[in-house]
Design brief:
This protein has helices spanning 16-24, 41-50, 65-73, 94-104, 160-170, 196-244, 248-265; strands at residues 6-12, 31-36, 54-58, 80-84, 88-90, 108-114, 128-130, 138-142, 174-185. It folds into two domains: 3-185, Spore Coat Polysaccharide Biosynthesis Protein SpsA, Chain A (Alpha-Beta Complex); 196-265. It is an alpha/beta fold and 277 residues long. The chain has seven helices and nine strands; from the N terminus they run E-H-E-H-E-H-E-E-H-E-E-E-H-E-H-H. The radius of gyration is 19 Å and the shape is globular. 42% of the residues lie in helices and 19% in strands. The termini are far apart. Strands 1, 2, 3, 4, 5, 6, 7, 8 and 9 form a nine-stranded mixed β-sheet that branches. Strand 1, helix 1 (16-24) and strand 2 form a beta-alpha-beta unit. Helix 6 (196-244) crosses helix 7.
C-alpha cells in the first residue's frame, strides 16, 4: 500500500516548541494538514516554507480540538487519515505498519498505536487487538466509513475521541489497537507551558463540562447528574476552603471546575477560553 493513500492531520494551538519534532518524525512523502487554532500567519508561512509536504490552515480563532480536526479531515482526499497530536513523535516504521494493518483488515473504522508506556500492558500472544476506545494522540481513520461525520463539535476539549469511539461501536464498527505501531507521546504538553494557571483553569473547566455532556448524551440527564454531583460538591467545598486559606490560585482552579459542571448541566455551550496572549 502506498503512502499517497494517507494524509496526516495535526491540530495546533501555540505549539511551536513541540510541532517540529513531530513533523521531523513523519516521512517527507506524506501529505500533512496542520490546522492552527489561531490567525497566526507567521506560523503558517514558516511551517509551509520549512516543510514542502505541509499545508497549514488557520482557523482564525481558538475553535477547539473537535472543530479544528473536522476542518482538517474535511480537506482530506486520501483513503486514510491519521490524527496526530503535535507532541507525538512517530516510531520507526509507524506509517508502514499503519498501512499494512489497514490493507489486511479492510473493514476497520479506527486504528490506534501503542504508546511506549502501553506495550508492556498488552497481551503478548497477538499484535492486533479489538478495543472499545483509543487514546486521542494518534488515531488512524478509514475515511470511507465516516461520510464526513467525524467529531462532535460541541466538545471543545476532552472526551471528543471517546465520543467518536462510542459512536463507532454503536454503529457496529471495529476499532483496533496494534502493538507493532509505536508512537511516543509526551501528554498534556501540546501547548507551550507559558501560563500554568491559565492552562490548569482551562483543563479543569473543560474536563468537567465534557464529562457531564458526554454522560448526558449517552445515559441521560439524571444519570449524568448522579455521576457529576460528587465532583460538584467537592469543587464547591474546595473553593470555600481555599478562599478561607487565601490560596487564590487553587481557589480559581476549583472555581473553574465548578463552573464547567454548572454550565454543562444548564445546557450552556462550552464557552470558556484560556487567556494565553
Amino acid at each position: 500500500m502506498e503512502s499517497k493513500e494517507l494524509t496526516i492531520v495535526i491540530v495546533t494551538f501555540k505549539s511551536e516548541s513541540k510541532i517540529y519534532s513531530c513533523l521531523n518524525s513523519i516521512p517527507s512523502n506524506i501529505n500533512i494538514i496542520v490546522v492552527e487554532n489561531s490567525n497566526n500567519h507567521n506560523f503558517k508561512k514558516k511551517i509551509e516554507k520549512m516543510y514542502s509536504n505541509v499545508r497549514c490552515i488557520l482557523s482564525g480563532d481558538n475553535v477547539g480540538y473537535s472543530i479544528a480536526n473536522n476542518l482538517g479531515l474535511k480537506q482530506v482526499q486520501t483513503k486514510f487519515a491519521l490524527i496526530l497530536n503535535p507532541d507525538a513523535v512517530l516510531g520507526k516504521d509507524a506509517i508502514n505498519n499503519f498501512l499494512l494493518v489497514a490493507e489486511k483488515n479492510t473493514d476497520f473504522w479506527l486504528l490506534g498505536p501503542s504508546s511506549y508506556q502501553q506495550i508492556k500492558n498488552l497481551p503478548q500472544d497477538k499484535d492486533l487487538i479489538e478495543v472499545n476506545n483509543l487514546k486521542g494522540f494518534a488515531i488512524f481513520l478509514n475515511m470511507k466509513k465516516f461520510n464526513n461525520n467525524f467529531f462532535d463539535e460541541n466538545f471543545f476539549l476532552y472526551f471528543e475521541e471517546i465520543d467518536l469511539c462510542t459512536r463507532v461501536k454503536k454503529s457496529g464498527g471495529k476499532i483496533f489497537l496494534n502493538k507493532k505501531i509505536s508512537i511516543k507521546h509526551e501528554g498534556a504538553s501540546s501547548v507551550d507551558k507559558m501560563k500554568f494557571l491559565e492552562l490548569e483553569k482551562n483543563r479543569n473547566w473543560h474536563w468537567m463540562w465534557s464529562t457531564f455532556y458526554y454522560h448526558k448524551k449517552y445515559r441521560g440527564f439524571l444519570i449524568a447528574s448522579l455521576i457529576i454531583f460528587p465532583k460538584l460538591i467537592s469543587a464547591l467545598s474546595k473553593v470555600v476552603f481555599y478562599q478561607l486559606t487565601f490560596n487564590n490560585k487553587k481557589k480559581n482552579i476549583y472555581f473553574c471546575r465548578m463552573s464547567g459542571i454548572i454550565n454543562s448541566m444548564i445546557g450552556k455551550k462550552s464557552w470558556y477560553r484560556p487567556s494565553l496572549d
